[in-house]
Amino acid sequence: MNTAELIEALNQIVKEKGIDKERIFKALESALVTAYKKNYGTSQNVKVTVNRETGDIHVYAQKEVVEDVYDNLLEISLEDAKSINIRYNIGDIVDIEVTPKDFGRVAAQTAKQRVVQEIREAEREIIYENFIEKENDLITGIVQKKEKQNVLVDIGPTETLLAPSEQMPNEEYNHGDRLKLYVVEVKKTSKGPNIVVSRTHPGLVKRLFELEVPEIYDGIVEIKSISREAGSRTKIAVHSKDKNVDATGACVGPKGIRVQNVVNELKGEKIDIVKWSKDPGEFIANALSPAKVISVEVDEEQRSAKVIVPDYQLSLAIGKEGQNARLAAKLTGWKIDIKSESQAAELKEKDQ
Fold it and tell me: Which residues of 13-41 are buried (b: 16+ CB within 10 A; e: fewer)?
Protein backbone atom coordinates (compact mmCIF):
# COMPACT_ATOMS: atom_id res chain seq x y z
CA MET A 1 0.00 0.00 0.00
CA ASN A 2 1.43 3.39 -0.98
CA THR A 3 0.67 6.54 1.00
CA ALA A 4 -1.99 7.76 -1.45
CA GLU A 5 -3.87 4.46 -1.06
CA LEU A 6 -3.44 4.76 2.71
CA ILE A 7 -5.08 8.21 2.72
CA GLU A 8 -7.96 6.92 0.60
CA ALA A 9 -8.49 3.95 2.94
CA LEU A 10 -8.29 6.22 6.00
CA ASN A 11 -10.85 8.65 4.61
CA GLN A 12 -13.23 5.75 3.95
CA ILE A 13 -12.83 4.30 7.46
CA VAL A 14 -13.18 7.70 9.15
CA LYS A 15 -16.40 8.33 7.21
CA GLU A 16 -17.90 4.90 7.91
CA LYS A 17 -17.08 4.78 11.61
CA GLY A 18 -17.55 8.43 12.52
CA ILE A 19 -14.01 8.75 13.88
CA ASP A 20 -12.14 12.07 14.14
CA LYS A 21 -9.80 12.17 11.12
CA GLU A 22 -7.27 14.47 12.81
CA ARG A 23 -6.91 12.05 15.74
CA ILE A 24 -5.87 9.25 13.36
CA PHE A 25 -3.30 11.46 11.60
CA LYS A 26 -1.80 12.68 14.89
CA ALA A 27 -1.41 9.07 16.06
CA LEU A 28 0.13 8.13 12.71
CA GLU A 29 2.64 11.01 12.85
CA SER A 30 3.60 10.06 16.41
CA ALA A 31 4.15 6.43 15.33
CA LEU A 32 6.27 7.54 12.38
CA VAL A 33 8.57 9.56 14.68
CA THR A 34 9.20 6.37 16.68
CA ALA A 35 9.70 4.34 13.48
CA TYR A 36 12.20 6.88 12.10
CA LYS A 37 14.27 6.90 15.28
CA LYS A 38 14.23 3.10 15.47
CA ASN A 39 15.15 2.53 11.81
CA TYR A 40 17.70 5.32 11.46
CA GLY A 41 19.17 5.18 14.97
CA THR A 42 19.13 8.87 15.70
CA SER A 43 18.82 10.86 18.90
CA GLN A 44 17.74 13.97 16.98
CA ASN A 45 14.54 15.77 17.87
CA VAL A 46 12.38 14.95 14.87
CA LYS A 47 8.85 15.61 13.72
CA VAL A 48 6.96 13.88 10.95
CA THR A 49 4.17 15.44 8.93
CA VAL A 50 1.67 13.57 6.77
CA ASN A 51 -0.18 15.59 4.16
CA ARG A 52 -3.93 15.13 4.85
CA GLU A 53 -4.80 15.15 1.15
CA THR A 54 -1.91 13.51 -0.73
CA GLY A 55 -0.38 11.32 1.96
CA ASP A 56 3.11 12.78 1.32
CA ILE A 57 5.38 12.19 4.31
CA HIS A 58 8.16 14.55 5.43
CA VAL A 59 10.62 14.09 8.28
CA TYR A 60 12.20 17.15 9.89
CA ALA A 61 15.11 17.39 12.31
CA GLN A 62 14.27 20.11 14.85
CA LYS A 63 17.18 22.24 15.99
CA GLU A 64 17.26 25.10 18.46
CA VAL A 65 18.88 28.37 17.39
CA VAL A 66 21.80 29.12 19.75
CA GLU A 67 24.80 31.46 19.88
CA ASP A 68 27.34 28.68 20.44
CA VAL A 69 26.68 25.21 19.03
CA TYR A 70 27.74 22.30 21.28
CA ASP A 71 25.57 19.59 19.73
CA ASN A 72 25.08 19.58 15.94
CA LEU A 73 22.20 17.11 16.19
CA LEU A 74 20.11 19.36 18.42
CA GLU A 75 21.42 22.89 17.79
CA ILE A 76 22.03 25.34 14.96
CA SER A 77 23.93 28.64 14.99
CA LEU A 78 22.09 31.91 14.50
CA GLU A 79 24.13 32.56 11.34
CA ASP A 80 23.15 29.22 9.76
CA ALA A 81 19.54 29.66 10.83
CA LYS A 82 19.32 33.11 9.24
CA SER A 83 20.74 31.69 6.01
CA ILE A 84 17.60 29.50 5.91
CA ASN A 85 15.23 32.27 6.98
CA ILE A 86 16.18 35.80 8.00
CA ARG A 87 13.40 35.85 10.62
CA TYR A 88 14.97 33.21 12.91
CA ASN A 89 16.21 34.40 16.35
CA ILE A 90 17.91 32.80 19.37
CA GLY A 91 15.60 30.22 20.99
CA ASP A 92 13.58 29.51 17.84
CA ILE A 93 13.24 25.96 16.49
CA VAL A 94 14.37 25.35 12.90
CA ASP A 95 12.87 22.43 10.93
CA ILE A 96 15.42 20.87 8.57
CA GLU A 97 14.09 18.20 6.23
CA VAL A 98 15.85 14.84 6.61
CA THR A 99 13.33 12.53 4.90
CA PRO A 100 15.16 9.31 3.82
CA LYS A 101 14.53 8.07 0.28
CA ASP A 102 13.05 4.73 1.35
CA PHE A 103 11.02 6.12 4.27
CA GLY A 104 7.72 5.50 2.42
CA ARG A 105 8.17 1.73 2.78
CA VAL A 106 8.92 1.99 6.52
CA ALA A 107 6.01 4.39 6.91
CA ALA A 108 3.52 2.06 5.20
CA GLN A 109 4.43 -0.83 7.51
CA THR A 110 4.24 1.34 10.63
CA ALA A 111 1.10 3.16 9.53
CA LYS A 112 -1.03 0.07 9.06
CA GLN A 113 -0.35 -1.27 12.55
CA ARG A 114 -0.75 2.05 14.37
CA VAL A 115 -3.81 3.17 12.45
CA VAL A 116 -5.62 -0.11 13.11
CA GLN A 117 -4.82 0.27 16.82
CA GLU A 118 -5.97 3.90 16.94
CA ILE A 119 -9.19 3.12 15.06
CA ARG A 120 -9.93 0.33 17.54
CA GLU A 121 -9.40 2.71 20.47
CA ALA A 122 -11.50 5.43 18.85
CA GLU A 123 -14.32 2.95 18.18
CA ARG A 124 -14.28 1.85 21.82
CA GLU A 125 -14.50 5.47 22.95
CA ILE A 126 -17.42 6.13 20.60
CA ILE A 127 -19.24 3.06 21.96
CA TYR A 128 -18.53 4.19 25.54
CA GLU A 129 -19.79 7.74 24.87
CA ASN A 130 -22.86 6.34 23.14
CA PHE A 131 -23.80 4.01 26.01
CA ILE A 132 -22.81 6.20 28.98
CA GLU A 133 -25.68 8.45 27.86
CA LYS A 134 -28.01 5.43 28.06
CA GLU A 135 -27.06 4.46 31.61
CA ASN A 136 -30.29 3.92 33.63
CA ASP A 137 -32.25 3.79 30.38
CA LEU A 138 -33.67 1.21 27.98
CA ILE A 139 -31.99 -0.25 24.92
CA THR A 140 -33.09 -3.00 22.56
CA GLY A 141 -30.93 -6.05 21.95
CA ILE A 142 -31.10 -9.22 19.87
CA VAL A 143 -30.18 -12.54 21.45
CA GLN A 144 -27.23 -14.18 19.67
CA LYS A 145 -26.54 -17.30 21.72
CA LYS A 146 -26.14 -18.76 25.18
CA GLU A 147 -22.59 -18.99 26.55
CA LYS A 148 -22.71 -21.28 29.59
CA GLN A 149 -25.12 -19.41 31.87
CA ASN A 150 -24.69 -16.04 30.13
CA VAL A 151 -26.75 -14.79 27.18
CA LEU A 152 -24.82 -12.98 24.43
CA VAL A 153 -26.86 -10.02 23.15
CA ASP A 154 -26.21 -7.84 20.10
CA ILE A 155 -26.87 -4.20 21.13
CA GLY A 156 -25.97 -2.44 17.88
CA PRO A 157 -22.38 -1.29 17.66
CA THR A 158 -21.24 -3.96 20.12
CA GLU A 159 -22.27 -7.06 22.06
CA THR A 160 -22.79 -7.60 25.77
CA LEU A 161 -23.57 -10.42 28.16
CA LEU A 162 -26.81 -10.74 30.10
CA ALA A 163 -25.52 -12.35 33.30
CA PRO A 164 -27.50 -15.11 35.07
CA SER A 165 -28.34 -12.75 37.97
CA GLU A 166 -29.89 -10.29 35.47
CA GLN A 167 -32.02 -12.90 33.66
CA MET A 168 -35.70 -13.40 34.46
CA PRO A 169 -36.42 -16.89 35.83
CA ASN A 170 -39.58 -17.28 33.72
CA GLU A 171 -37.89 -16.34 30.45
CA GLU A 172 -36.37 -18.37 27.64
CA TYR A 173 -33.64 -16.72 25.58
CA ASN A 174 -33.53 -17.95 21.98
CA HIS A 175 -31.45 -16.82 19.00
CA GLY A 176 -33.06 -13.83 17.29
CA ASP A 177 -35.28 -12.82 20.22
CA ARG A 178 -35.63 -9.03 20.60
CA LEU A 179 -35.32 -7.86 24.20
CA LYS A 180 -35.72 -4.56 25.97
CA LEU A 181 -32.82 -4.23 28.41
CA TYR A 182 -32.11 -1.84 31.25
CA VAL A 183 -28.58 -0.38 31.22
CA VAL A 184 -27.40 -0.70 34.84
CA GLU A 185 -23.84 0.55 34.38
CA VAL A 186 -21.26 1.40 31.72
CA LYS A 187 -17.63 0.87 32.74
CA LYS A 188 -14.39 1.65 30.89
CA THR A 189 -12.00 -1.30 30.68
CA SER A 190 -8.77 -2.02 28.79
CA LYS A 191 -10.77 -4.23 26.40
CA GLY A 192 -13.36 -1.55 25.72
CA PRO A 193 -16.59 -0.56 27.49
CA ASN A 194 -18.32 -3.10 29.71
CA ILE A 195 -22.08 -2.55 29.43
CA VAL A 196 -24.01 -4.16 32.28
CA VAL A 197 -27.61 -4.87 31.24
CA SER A 198 -30.54 -6.33 33.14
CA ARG A 199 -34.01 -7.82 32.73
CA THR A 200 -34.56 -8.03 36.51
CA HIS A 201 -33.85 -4.44 37.59
CA PRO A 202 -36.86 -2.41 38.88
CA GLY A 203 -35.69 0.38 36.55
CA LEU A 204 -36.78 -1.78 33.58
CA VAL A 205 -40.41 -1.63 34.77
CA LYS A 206 -40.14 2.12 35.39
CA ARG A 207 -38.83 2.80 31.88
CA LEU A 208 -41.42 0.52 30.27
CA PHE A 209 -44.22 2.47 31.96
CA GLU A 210 -42.64 5.74 30.78
CA LEU A 211 -42.82 4.39 27.23
CA GLU A 212 -46.45 3.29 27.56
CA VAL A 213 -47.91 6.11 29.67
CA PRO A 214 -47.68 9.63 28.17
CA GLU A 215 -48.71 11.14 31.52
CA ILE A 216 -45.56 9.68 33.13
CA TYR A 217 -43.34 10.83 30.28
CA ASP A 218 -44.87 14.32 30.51
CA GLY A 219 -44.33 14.45 34.29
CA ILE A 220 -48.04 14.65 35.23
CA VAL A 221 -47.98 11.18 36.81
CA GLU A 222 -44.97 10.30 38.93
CA ILE A 223 -43.65 6.86 39.84
CA LYS A 224 -42.87 7.20 43.54
CA SER A 225 -41.43 3.74 44.19
CA ILE A 226 -41.16 0.24 42.75
CA SER A 227 -40.63 -3.12 44.40
CA ARG A 228 -40.00 -6.11 42.19
CA GLU A 229 -39.47 -9.84 42.28
CA ALA A 230 -38.55 -10.31 38.64
CA GLY A 231 -40.56 -12.80 36.63
CA SER A 232 -43.18 -13.05 39.36
CA ARG A 233 -44.64 -9.78 40.64
CA THR A 234 -44.02 -6.04 40.75
CA LYS A 235 -45.71 -3.31 42.78
CA ILE A 236 -45.54 0.24 41.51
CA ALA A 237 -46.69 3.30 43.51
CA VAL A 238 -47.90 6.23 41.43
CA HIS A 239 -49.03 9.77 42.17
CA SER A 240 -50.73 12.41 40.03
CA LYS A 241 -49.68 16.05 40.21
CA ASP A 242 -52.95 17.00 38.53
CA LYS A 243 -56.12 16.30 40.56
CA ASN A 244 -58.04 15.81 37.30
CA VAL A 245 -55.76 12.92 36.27
CA ASP A 246 -56.19 9.51 37.90
CA ALA A 247 -52.65 8.11 38.30
CA THR A 248 -53.60 4.43 38.49
CA GLY A 249 -56.11 4.78 35.63
CA ALA A 250 -53.48 6.44 33.43
CA CYS A 251 -51.08 3.54 34.05
CA VAL A 252 -53.73 0.87 33.44
CA GLY A 253 -54.80 2.61 30.23
CA PRO A 254 -57.96 2.20 28.11
CA LYS A 255 -59.20 -1.40 28.52
CA GLY A 256 -55.97 -2.14 30.41
CA ILE A 257 -53.87 -1.88 27.25
CA ARG A 258 -50.96 0.07 28.77
CA VAL A 259 -50.29 -2.21 31.71
CA GLN A 260 -50.89 -5.24 29.47
CA ASN A 261 -48.14 -4.09 27.08
CA VAL A 262 -45.70 -3.94 30.04
CA VAL A 263 -46.86 -7.36 31.28
CA ASN A 264 -46.34 -8.81 27.79
CA GLU A 265 -42.80 -7.40 27.60
CA LEU A 266 -42.11 -8.99 31.02
CA LYS A 267 -43.50 -12.35 29.86
CA GLY A 268 -46.55 -12.37 32.12
CA GLU A 269 -45.08 -10.85 35.28
CA LYS A 270 -47.97 -9.64 37.48
CA ILE A 271 -48.11 -5.89 38.14
CA ASP A 272 -49.99 -4.16 40.96
CA ILE A 273 -50.44 -0.42 40.37
CA VAL A 274 -51.14 1.30 43.69
CA LYS A 275 -51.91 4.87 44.61
CA TRP A 276 -49.16 6.60 46.57
CA SER A 277 -50.13 8.72 49.58
CA LYS A 278 -48.14 10.94 51.91
CA ASP A 279 -50.27 9.43 54.70
CA PRO A 280 -48.28 6.28 55.66
CA GLY A 281 -51.38 4.39 56.84
CA GLU A 282 -53.20 5.00 53.59
CA PHE A 283 -50.12 4.17 51.50
CA ILE A 284 -49.55 0.89 53.38
CA ALA A 285 -53.21 -0.10 52.94
CA ASN A 286 -52.95 0.65 49.18
CA ALA A 287 -49.64 -1.23 48.91
CA LEU A 288 -51.27 -4.44 50.21
CA SER A 289 -53.61 -4.45 47.21
CA PRO A 290 -55.40 -6.56 46.03
CA ALA A 291 -56.20 -7.34 49.69
CA LYS A 292 -58.78 -5.21 51.52
CA VAL A 293 -57.58 -3.60 54.76
CA ILE A 294 -59.69 -2.78 57.82
CA SER A 295 -57.19 -0.65 59.72
CA VAL A 296 -53.55 0.42 59.85
CA GLU A 297 -51.83 1.51 63.05
CA VAL A 298 -48.46 3.17 62.39
CA ASP A 299 -45.47 3.71 64.65
CA GLU A 300 -43.61 6.63 63.06
CA GLU A 301 -40.53 6.21 65.26
CA GLN A 302 -40.02 2.53 64.43
CA ARG A 303 -41.36 2.92 60.86
CA SER A 304 -43.55 -0.10 61.52
CA ALA A 305 -47.27 -0.71 60.98
CA LYS A 306 -49.84 -3.11 62.40
CA VAL A 307 -52.40 -3.98 59.76
CA ILE A 308 -55.75 -5.71 60.35
CA VAL A 309 -57.52 -7.42 57.46
CA PRO A 310 -60.75 -9.47 57.26
CA ASP A 311 -60.21 -13.17 58.07
CA TYR A 312 -60.94 -14.27 54.49
CA GLN A 313 -58.35 -11.73 53.17
CA LEU A 314 -55.42 -12.80 55.37
CA SER A 315 -53.80 -15.23 52.93
CA LEU A 316 -54.29 -12.71 50.08
CA ALA A 317 -52.72 -9.90 52.12
CA ILE A 318 -49.70 -12.03 53.02
CA GLY A 319 -49.50 -13.61 49.57
CA LYS A 320 -47.93 -16.83 48.38
CA GLU A 321 -44.80 -17.46 50.47
CA GLY A 322 -45.28 -13.96 51.97
CA GLN A 323 -44.67 -12.21 48.63
CA ASN A 324 -47.48 -9.63 48.81
CA ALA A 325 -46.51 -8.46 52.29
CA ARG A 326 -42.80 -8.48 51.38
CA LEU A 327 -43.30 -6.37 48.24
CA ALA A 328 -45.60 -3.96 50.11
CA ALA A 329 -42.95 -3.48 52.82
CA LYS A 330 -40.28 -2.83 50.18
CA LEU A 331 -42.56 -0.45 48.27
CA THR A 332 -43.44 1.66 51.32
CA GLY A 333 -40.18 1.35 53.27
CA TRP A 334 -42.18 0.31 56.36
CA LYS A 335 -42.10 -2.90 58.39
CA ILE A 336 -45.61 -4.40 58.12
CA ASP A 337 -47.20 -6.82 60.59
CA ILE A 338 -50.48 -8.28 59.26
CA LYS A 339 -53.16 -9.83 61.46
CA SER A 340 -56.66 -11.07 60.68
CA GLU A 341 -59.67 -9.67 62.59
CA SER A 342 -59.90 -12.88 64.66
CA GLN A 343 -56.18 -12.83 65.54
CA ALA A 344 -56.40 -9.15 66.52
CA ALA A 345 -59.46 -9.83 68.69
CA GLU A 346 -57.70 -12.76 70.43
CA LEU A 347 -54.65 -10.63 71.16
CA LYS A 348 -56.88 -7.87 72.53
CA GLU A 349 -58.61 -10.34 74.85
CA LYS A 350 -55.28 -11.65 76.15
CA ASP A 351 -54.08 -8.11 76.84
CA GLN A 352 -57.20 -7.25 78.86
Answer: bbeeeebeeeebbebbbebbeebbeebee
